[in-house]
Design goal:
This protein is mainly alpha-helical. It has two domains: 87 residues, Orthogonal Bundle (DNA polymerase, domain 1); 133 residues, Intergrase catalytic core (hpI Integrase, Chain A), CATH 1.10.443. The protein is built from eleven helices and five strands. A three-stranded antiparallel sheet has the order 1-2-3, with no helix packed on it. A two-stranded antiparallel sheet has the order 4-5. It is elongated and about 60 Å long. The chain starts with a helix and ends in a 13-residue tail after the last helix.
Length: 250
């Protein structure tokens, strides 16, 4: 590890950034340096402008992805190198936000019943019942399921915070069937090592495959991902206002 990389890593760790963010930021700065075949601390505003244009024009990245690149490079120059010129020379691209696709209750039920196996079905049921993120599901432990309190403990979520989410009766029943079949030890959804089941977290690819394969089998044409199921869970808990009976003001 170079001294420069070590400096950036220490700054990220000092601010308690999530491990995924740390890995991503380091990779982005490395890509930036390799693009110009120079050390990143030898590059300046002109290189930053060229690189941002390259991300849009040559690599065809969307604004959301470029925002991640900008955040990483701003951190490197502002926090690691203590340079302050980057905010003007590396603007945050405007992101056109689209409304997320929301699955209907019937589509979610069809998705779950179309899972290729019990492992995938339990992953899908956990995602749409709790609304947890993909990374949170991957690191869920058997001890995080509290059937007495009917709660699921999510540890070290976004921002490094722990939280509890309700455990539905349907999810509990699914987990009990799954438990008798899989007999997981530490991690609720154990991954594999050299194609053998091991007591390690699953990779991020597994929940995506569970969603994609089930959607194909169900004939659902909407984009379905772990985050889609998170949106579905959020839509079920949104408060609904009273019905309007009188005329609208405008």
């Amino acid at each position: 590890m170079t001294q420069l990389r070590k400096m950036m890593l220490e700054e990220l760790q000092r601010r308690n950034y999530a491990q995924n963010t740390v890995t991503g930021y380091l990779r982005i700065v490395q890509d930036f340096a390799e693009h110009f075949h120079q050390r990143p601390d030898k590059l300046g505003p002109d290189h930053l402008r060229q690189y941002q244009a390259h991300l849009f024009q040559d690599r065809k990245l969307n604004a959301g992805t470029v925002q991640q690149y900008v955040a990483a490079l701003r951190f490197f120059f502002n926090k690691t190198l203590k340079r302050r010129y980057v905010l003007e020379d590396l603007p945050m691209p405007k992101r056109h936000r689209k409304l997320p696709e929301i699955l209907s209750p019937d589509e979610v039920a069809l998705l779950s019943s179309s899972a290729s196996n019990l492992f995938h079905q339990t992953i899908l049921t956990t995602l749409y019942s709790t609304g947890m993120r993909c990374a949170e599901l991957r690191h869920l432990k058997t001890t995080d399921i509290d059937s007495e309190r009917m709660m699921v403990r999510i540890r070290q979520g976004k921002g490094g915070r722990d939280r509890d989410v309700p455990l539905s009766q349907k999810l509990l029943e699914t987990l009990r069937v799954y438990w008798r079949w899989m007999k997981p030890k530490t991690y609720l959804f154990p991954g594999t090592v050299k194609n053998w089941r091991a007591d390690v977290p699953i990779t991020g690819k597994v929940p995506w495959e569970a969603c994609h394969q089930a959607a194909q089998r169900a004939g659902i044409t909407k984009h379905v991902s772990p985050h889609t199921l998170r949106h579905y869970a959020a839509s079920r808990t949104m408060p609904r206002g009273p019905k309007r009976t009188g005329p609208r003001a405008w």
